[in-house]
Amino acid sequence: MKLISTVFKEGERIPAKHTCDGKNINPPLLWSNAPKGTQSFVLIMDDPDIPDFVKKSRGIEVFDHWLAYNIPPSVSGVKEGTEPEGIAGLNSAGKIGYTGPCPPDREHRYFFKIYALDTELDLPEGATKIEVENAMQGHILEQTELMGKYERQ
Questions:
Q1: What is the mean pLDDT of residues 23-51?
Q2: Taking the mean position of all CA atoms in its chain, how far away is CA 125?
Q3: What global pTM score does this model have?
Q4: Contact 18, 27 (CB under 8 A)
Q5: Dihedral sign, CA of 146, 7, 78, 106?
Q6: How far apart are CA 88 and CA 95, in angstroms?
Q7: 1-23 per-position pLDDT tens digit
Q8: 103-140 burial code (b ≥16 CB/10 A, e <16)
Q9: DSSP string, 45-102
Q10: Phi, psi of 140 (to 5 degrees)
Q11: Each residue of 81-112: pLDDT tens digit?
């Protein structure tokens, strides 16, 4: 599988428009070459570079910015500023939907991940990333990711 964005390439800076310093809307994403037998996709965007004070105050190791699951196999992307078809999960801000990069200390890496599954997940709206990852166990046909960076100016 392949995952790209039309507004940044692997390892490049995410445009400010897609962060807390801009419109805070998701960048466009396109994925292709899903394996045969794909029944749904999962989309996760997270930041593993959060500072220790955030880890301690929230009790997390990674900040989850965006989570969607049961995205139909006919879908091959997400348009800018829209939520994907499927079911929205809960991000680490305690909200449904996309929340953009807003690093408090330095440049952070943001990983956009797409998983092709051989099933749909039996989870209600608002599931957490841990719940989604647990439900995906044994059902991942293939996965890929796109990493972008952002540092506040």
A1: 98
A2: 16
A3: 0.97
A4: yes
A5: positive
A6: 10
A7: 999 999 999 999 999 999 999 99
A8: beeeebbbebbbbbbeebbebeeebebebbeebbeebe
A9: EEETT--HHHHHHHT-SSEEEEEEEEE-TT--EE-TT-PPSSEE-B-TTS-BS-----
A10: -80, 115
A11: 999 999 999 999 999 999 999 999 999 999 99
* Selection from 52, 140, 57, 60 nearest residue 92 by Cα: 60
pLDDT at 56 over 90: yes
Per the listing, tokens 């969607």 go with 68
Mean pLDDT of the chain: 97
Q: What is the pLDDT of residue 95?
A: 96
Encoded tokens for 52: 């220790």
83 sits in the region (left: phi over 0; alpha: psi -120 to 50; else beta) called: beta
Pull the structure tokens for residue 126: 């608002």
Q: What's at 29, amino acid-wise?
A: L
